[in-house]
Amino acid sequence: MITEPLDEARLLDRAEELAALLVDSVEGGASVGFLAPLDAAQALAWWRGRAAAMATGELAVWAAYEGTRVVGTVSLVFPDKPNSRHRAELVKLMVHREARGRGLGRRLLDTAERAAVAAGVTLLHLDTETDSPAEHLYRAAGWTRLGEIPDYAASPAGVLRPTTIYYKQVGAGARAA
Ligand SMILES: CC(C)(COP(=O)(O)OP(=O)(O)OC[C@H]1O[C@@H](n2cnc3c(N)ncnc32)[C@H](O)[C@@H]1OP(=O)(O)O)[C@@H](O)C(=O)NCCC(=O)NCCS
């Protein structure tokens, strides 16, 4: 299993596999921005649309492979505001259902955290559906649970669900904390 950062060309090259991963996550009930059933074409268009944000440096995307197949991904979103250059939001951490429970999610999380530190980021944050499996992963990785927002987003089935906010001070931010 390896993880690699994608550039725009590689993202477009791998967009169909990333789309399949997104469809699989939504089918599995994960709250990752879409309602079920998610159409493969819609998922593909969404991933292709990410390339523009990568070009401006607002988005970084990693893929994880088993063999040559993409089975996981994670992204960091960097705010464009001058007062927020020190922070990034962790989004779209997804592992294909066939590849879960083997440490890939944790490895992708570690990859994104290390890259954030290398980019000078000192604060990471994220939101995740309350009581989702991902919560265990973030807590185990030392993220701090801030609290819940009720009715934050619809589940793939269309039911409003709460989200839980997490943050983690990293790099110089962790040393100063
Ligand atoms: C969350 C997700 C990325 C975890 O991926 P994974 O490869 O199965 O995770 P790992 O194998 O690295 O497991 C990491 C930790 O989470 C725990 N974990 C994984 N799945 C779990 C589950 N269903 N219930 C409870 N704990 C779980 C593991 O036991 C492990 O804990 P440990 O380090 O204490 O042993 C994966 O379930 C997923 O893609 N979910 C759908 C998308 C999603 O919800 N993403 C989060 C959006 S914010």
Automatic annotation (TrEMBL):
Location of the N-acetyltransferase domain: 1-165
Transferase found in the keyword field: yes
Record-linked Gene3D superfamilies: 3.40.630.30
One example GO MF annotation: acyltransferase activity, transferring groups other than amino-acyl groups
UniProt keyword annotations, A-Z: Acyltransferase, Transferase
Family annotation (SUPFAM superfamilies): Acyl-CoA N-acyltransferases (Nat)
Keyword Transcription: no
Top-rank lineage group of the source organism: Bacteria
One protein family per Pfam: Acetyltransf_1
Name assigned to this protein: GNAT family N-acetyltransferase
